[in-house]
Cryptochrome DASH (Sinocyclocheilus grahami), 525 residues
Amino acid sequence: RMSASRTVICLLRNDLRLHDNEVFHWAQRNADHIIPLYCFDPRHYQGTYHFNFPKTGPFRLRFLLDSVKDLRDTLKKRGSTLLVRQGKPEDVVRDLIQQLGSVTAVAFHEEVASEEKSVEKKIKDICCQNKVKVQTFWGSTLYHRDDLPFSHIRGLPDIYTQFRKVVEGQGRVRPVLSTPEKVKALPLGLEEGTIPTFEGLGQTEPVEDCRSAFPCRGGETEALARLKHYFWDTNAVATYKETRNGMIGVDYSTKFSDYSLKTMLALGCISARYIYEQIKKYEAERTANQSTYWVIFELLWRDYFKFVGLKYGNRVFHMNGLQDKHVSWKTDMTLFNAWKEGRTGVPFVDANMRELALTGFMSNRGRQNVASFLTKDLCLDWRLGAEWFEYLLVDHDVCSNYGNWLYSAGIGNDPRENRKFNMIKQGLDYDNNGDYVRQWVPELQGIKGGDIHTPWTLSNSALSRAQVSLNETYPSPVITAPEWSRHINNKSSGPPAKVRKGSSYTPRQHKDRGIDFYFSKNKSF
């Protein structure tokens, strides 16, 4: 017999927050009882589609477990809790509907990619069979899908700059939704469920690496505190442009915007609209400059990749990419293993890949370089890199990850199809004295200055003094590109006169490579 009370299941996935969450906002007005639900879907802990790498790595899982625990704590303070189950969401939702008999609606945020859309379809079918309403929302982007100044998603420009100019000129950002002081209670008789352990999900808890550039934890509470620290307590956001391309140091890229922000956004611990609201408030009350604008600029990049995913669907995962461009990609696993393990013999690449493997983090600059190296120098199938990043990155977002890999491979949204990064030039530009490489490739620590980027060019006596033996203590490069030679004799022989504390030295001519670099027509990689 149907109960008179109305119960709404709020299915949470990549929206692990209470603030600016339309699912909770709607449920509060349309239910007597609310069931906030998170499911540890076993499909997320299986293998990737093409190469069967683990789908969720240990660093992202730790961040996810932190975020689930934090949301449960937040809800408990407001008279509710988070129901946690291990199982497929469609099965868990069906069981709850049949167990309770009072479920009137299931509410969730829509996702973009096919695996998530498949889950949504199954939930809709189950609800239809049980005469339960389905209420869906769009909440993962800064600009709402329905507010884009295009008549249809097919009208989305294929070049980011065109999208950005139209959206900035004609679009509007919706206001942030209020956070409920109290959340309506669960119906009686429901066990909240235990949050699984690493072992219960087939993982080993990662060991914290003392060199990690980002030792922060997950969750909405941490996200809001980090934003407050980054914006209001330290004013660090006002110098983001000057620091975003540094390679080492706890404050480089201020750790919020280039990494923490992306990670928190990927799991929905913070909303893009809230970040935008705080930036606008900061600009009105403190200062507005290129650095504050750059945060919005990067939120727009994230939006763009989401909307590209909507426009092209599964083509973002296809070997030939958005352009259906046929490239003779290789799947040489010996080369790939050298890349993923950080033993290519190219120190700047190896340092970045080792940092990723040991921390789940890699700077934006590093990602661009290792992706270029894999696709343009090694000519390996870009999906090898995309699926490896999917496994290890803490801040993995399916649309951003695959969109960026398509971009790097020259089969996505980059009008400069043949763009290729010069590994030696990039290493010298952004790690001029080699401090970053020394941190992650300690077997090269004896090599001084910028020479560390090209150990294979050093004399036997220089290598001997540095206690480096090529192909024994460190490999010779798996490949050398002809364009590298232009920069081999242009290396720093020692430390700069003055080094900014906490960041690797970047020469003066590259200090302003943030916004100026993007809008400049004279680009050299």
